[in-house]
Amino acid sequence: MNATSEVLEPVLPVLGPWLAGRRWFDARDAGARLAVRSATLVGREPPFLLHAVVAVDRTDGSLQRYQLLLGLGPELPTRLAPAAIASVPSGPRQGWHLYDAVADGALLGLLLRTLAGQGADGAPHLERTTRYPLPVGLVPRPLDVEQSNTTVSYGDRILLKIFRRPEPGPHTEVDVLDALTRQGCSRTPHLYGGLYSEAPGAEGLVLGLVEEFLSGAREGWEAAVRHASECVDGSCRGVPATGGFTPYAHSLGLAVAEVHGALGEAFGRTRLTIEDVAEEAARMNIRLKEAVEEVPALVRYAARLGVLFDDYARLAGRGCPVFAQRTHGDLHLGQALHTPDGWRIVDFEGEPDRPAAERARPQPVLRDVAGMLRSFDYAARTGLAASLHSGGGAEAVPPGQRLRRLRRSQAWAVRNRRAFVAGYASAGRDDPRCHPVLLRAFEADKAVYEAVYEARHRPDLLPIPLAAVHRLAGTAR
Fold first, then answer.
1. Rounded CA gap, 44 and 27, in Å?
2. What are the tens digits of pLDDT across the range 360-383?
3. Which of 105, 115, 194, 420 is the Cys-Cys partner for 174 at CB 3.0 to 4.6 Å?
4. Do 402 and 309 belong together in one domain?
């Protein structure tokens, strides 16, 4: 049932402010004119599930799409009042209520049945990658874990990930999980299939995926921050050099290396030419130049960071081999889940602020290693902040004690970074310690990316990547 003209068009003026409050909405599109690309009503009786794709034409000529899951009904139960968006101002359904469907378990159940083949045409279509049937009748539970997507658990058996900024296929994460599932990789969740749009105006968009739910999983980020905080305030158990989070960091390095091995087998591994490396180093310098314009605090480090990037290019020019393959693309502790069976790596979508074509480009695996090293630094600083907060705030902690806690947080980061690298090397793949020039360049590039991200979204955290930039710039010749 097409709903473009009769429902969505009249509410676009009030839909914009609601979108601006979503975590997955790009603040650069606030106030921009929305255009409906597709809209479909799903269901035989109200409340209906309104699935839609709206778009913003940006001044730079690019197009940003957003995927919406909305509820539409003549009545709005009290339990759904916090999810209310607007009332339809005109048309056959004038006065009906429009609300966020993610808050309505009945509509999330309808979506699952639709994906399993029990729904109407025009709704998202599940292209299955396994012969096993998709279970239905499971209790949905939205997860508050992601910034750029929406994830729903069904009966703690399957996960539905909804790409809020859908793009035409192929999609990095769907392709990667499909390949690793076919390989039987034990370090990643198994894929049921990808979600695709068949609605007029949105044909070919990849809307999401359905994957295995990892029962009993704990997020690596939360565990790392907790351990770091305990170590910073002196309450950590065991010998600091071997206890705490260090064994987990070591086993995480091993798990990442195994995933890299599986990705290399699935997609192949190539040696980059001197020209390839030179072009990548040039892109790194361009990103640095653009970052300096947006984050003035980077100006003083620009020349020395440029030296690190140029050293990377010179290394390849001297004949040192640089290999590239499919990687995770946005690896950090939040993308690692610790389960009773060990570490699992998730979310292969890549860095959300990078273009889709760039995210799918083969890269040296040390880019992933550098991303995880940066994450340990973030965990240490976050643990430090938690420790100071528990003591009444930084101002309430005596200067000498603040300095001791800062040094402990730095030591925690160093220990766990080393443990992660050692674990990675123990898998028998390239030892990151044998490639210091590449690792420094990639970590610096990642820190520059982080500085831009934090300046845009979380300015209070900008000192974290800037501290890394300061340290890395000091290693330049």
1. 36
2. 889 999 999 999 999 999 999 999
3. 194
4. yes
Number of domains forming the structure of the chain: 2
* DSSP collapsed to 3 states, 217-246: CEEHHHHHHHHHHHHHCCCCCCCCCCCCCH
For the segment 276-322, what is each residue's pLDDT rounded down to a tens digit?
A: 999 999 999 999 999 999 999 999 999 999 999 999 999 988 988 99
Q: Do 141 and 240 have their domain in common?
A: no
Q: Which range among 23-32, 145-154, 235-244 shows the weakest confidence by mean pLDDT? A: 235-244
Name the pLDDT band for 123 (thresholds 50, 70, 90): confident
Of the residues 185, 212, 239, the one at which a domain ends: 212
Judgement on whether residues 66 and 114 belong to the same structural domain of the protein: yes
Q: Which of 446, 442, 449 is CA-nearest to residue 277?
A: 442
d(CA 428, CA 425): 6
List all residues 6 or more positions away from 217 whose beta carbon is below 8 Å from its beta carbon.
337, 338, 339, 344
pTM, 2 dp: 0.89
Give Cα separations from 371 to 72, 333, 432, 447 (angstroms): 42, 9, 13, 9
Q: What is the pLDDT at residue 142?
A: 95
**What is the pLDDT confidence band of residue 1, given thresholds at 50, 70 and 90?**
very low
* Structural domain of 107: 4-212
Going by C-alpha positions, the residue among 94, 72, 145 that lies closest to residue 334 is 145
Tokens 């420790």 — which residue? Answer: 387
Phi, psi (rounded to 5 degrees) for 241: -70, -25
